[in-house]
Specification:
The complex is a heterodimer of chains A (199) and B (320). Chain A is mostly helical and 199 residues long. Chain A is built from ten helices and no strands. Helix content of chain A is 74%, strand content 0%. Chain A starts with a helix and ends with a helix. About 7% of the residues of chain A have low confidence. The radius of gyration of chain B is 31 Å and the shape is elongated. Chain B has twelve helices and seven strands. The N and C termini of chain B lie far apart (72 Å). Classes of the chains: A mainly alpha (199), B alpha+beta (320).
């Protein structure tokens, strides 16, 4: 039988593990869910993936180095789990040559548009090729470093950097195009209204 | 430190990495120095920063991207139990007691049930194989839709093939690869495997469904080469009547079985682990069609694709 002191020790071990995990890892759950949702495109599957990820993270939490980026560590585990569930070659959309060419043939980079709406930004993100979406989401939304993205996605660092650069550029170009078209419409409507009001 | 001045174009190329703090100190200084006297670039950087913030907020706050609070709460509780469960288990282990945490108990019960099931299946398989090879009869080797010619031993029907470890491996590959995606080794492209391992893999997918001559309403879902328990297969995953069907080709056939030579001799059927297996063979290859379709449909599909597959493989085997 365990004596009282041993019971207390193991109890405080479990409590300490949970306290550390709760404060370090659990705050990242909403962000991880977004990544899971992007990976799986399905709410139920994303919840399953998040559950697997956090369960695995808890059981190997002793390997997490305090002071390093816990979110990046968790995203790595999630990608590993996802890869095990569905081989990347089957489920992830590979960047086709055509998509690479699209990003290559942006003629010039217009100034970044301002005053765009949330819907416009999300719509532009949605239109990016999937491999570019991935790195833009991980870098600019989930705030992982280039190296952390390369480690999590198992994509060479140079490719990650190239995709991030192209993805951001394509995003801005799409928004600029949208702003030009809709800006003109807004201007026209405003002008008609002004004329009608006799200004 | 001497600062090399940058042009606007260079600054704009590096602006995103600058905002992400991914540049080395010297480059950061060069950009800062440029920004001090370039209002246009300052505006551009501010706009990019603003866009990034907008993107982050829009994506993070989008209603469809929100985690369900009740799910998060339940998950949190479960993880907490896991953390404390580990403590309880280790304490009990130290105590020499056999008490289990609820989930662990269920897992162990499931494991025990699986073991009993596995032992049962193994006994059945041993019994089947013993009785088959000593007293092969139509009920054991044939199937409802096959003609007597198809199932008669010695007529070219792959009697032995259908009951071999090869067939068992084919079923395992269908189950673990096509259905559950859980092979240990990642599959590789079929054409690449064809050049590397076995030339019959090259253009095999086209042979399964020759252009314009699709035998039934069959669709090729995927074509790759994968390994199950050390054996390499060409694996064509088909979709037929809403079910996944595997056509698997592997090198090596039992020596005692003469190759089939025509469509009428193509098929022997069996069932392993709930999957239907139809098979035929060439001089050096065994070909399996595996699915959970009813027997007749699996056999019908195998018969439909067999002629072109057989012709393709034998042509390459004979070096034509």
């Amino acid at each position: 039988m365990l004596n009282g002191a041993e019971k207390q020790d193991s109890s405080s071990e479990g409590d300490a593990l949970w306290d550390a995990f709760e404060s370090e890892a659990m705050p990242h759950a909403p962000g991880l869910f977004r990544v899971a949702l992007w990976l799986t495109r399905d709410h139920t599957t994303a919840e399953d993936l998040l559950q697997e990820t956090l369960t695995e993270a808890l059981s190997s939490f002793h390997r997490f180095a305090p002071g390093t980026n816990c979110r990046a560590w968790l995203v790595s585990i999630m990608y590993h789990r996802h890869s095990k569930r569905r081989w990347e070659s089957r489920r992830l959309h590979l960047v086709s040559d055509a998509e690479e060419r699209i990003a290559e043939t942006i003629p010039f980079e217009p100034p970044t548009p301002q005053n765009v709406t949330d819907e416009e930004v999300l719509s532009a993100l949605d239109r990016l090729p999937r491999a570019f979406q991935e790195v833009v989401i991980l870098a600019d939304i989930e705030e992982l470093s280039y190296k952390e993205i390369a480690a999590a996605t198992k994509v060479p660092l140079g490719t990650v950097m190239s995709r991030i650069s192209r993805g951001r550029k394509l995003l801005r170009s799409q928004l600029a195009e949208y702003a030009r078209a809709h800006g003109f419409e807004r201007f026209s409507r405003a002008r008609v209204k002004a004329v009608e009001e006799g200004e | 430190m001497k600062i090399v001045h940058m042009e606007c174009e260079q600054v704009r190329q590096l602006a995103d990495s600058y905002l992400s703090d991914e540049l080395i100190v010297e480059t950061n200084h060069q950009i800062i120095s440029h920004l001090e006297h370039c209002a246009d670039c300052r505006r551009e950087l501010a706009a990019r920063r603003e866009l990034r913030t907008r993107l982050r907020e829009a994506f993070t706050n989008a209603s469809e991207n929100q985690i369900r609070p009740e799910f998060l709460s339940r998950l949190s509780e479960q993880l907490r139990d896991q953390a404390l469960g580990r403590r309880i288990d280790s304490a009990r282990s130290a105590d020499g007691l056999r008490l289990f945490h609820g989930q662990r108990r269920i897992a162990l019960l499931a494991l025990a049930a699986c073991l009993v099931l596995a032992i049962g299946i193994a006994l059945i398989i041993v019994w089947q194989r013993t009785s088959l090879f000593t007293h092969p009869g139509p009920q054991e080797i044939g199937q409802k839709g096959s003609t007597p010619d198809n199932s008669a031993p010695g007529s070219g029907v792959p009697v032995n093939l259908v009951k071999t470890e090869l067939a068992r491996s084919a079923v395992g590959d269908h189950r673990d690869c096509a259905i559950h995606f859980r092979l240990e080794e990642k599959p590789i492209d079929l054409e690449v495997a064809g050049h590397k391992y076995d030339p019959v893999y090259i253009n095999l997918a086209k042979a399964v469904l020759p252009e314009g001559k699709s035998p039934l309403d069959v669709e090729v879902v995927e074509a790759h080469s994968c390994i199950f328990e050390g054996r390499r297969f060409a694996h064509i995953v088909l979709k037929y009547r809403g079910r996944l069907v595997s056509l698997l080709v592997t090198e090596g056939v039992p020596e005692v079985t003469p190759p089939t030579t025509s469509q009428s001799q193509v098929i022997a059927c069996s069932q392993f682990d709930g999957y239907q297996v139809s098979c035929f063979q060439t001089a050096r290859h065994a070909i399996f069609v595996v699915s959970d379709l009813p027997e007749g449909e699996n056999l019908g599909l195998a018969r439909a694709v067999a002629p072109s597959v057989y012709a393709h493989i034998t042509r390459i085997e004979s070096g034509v």
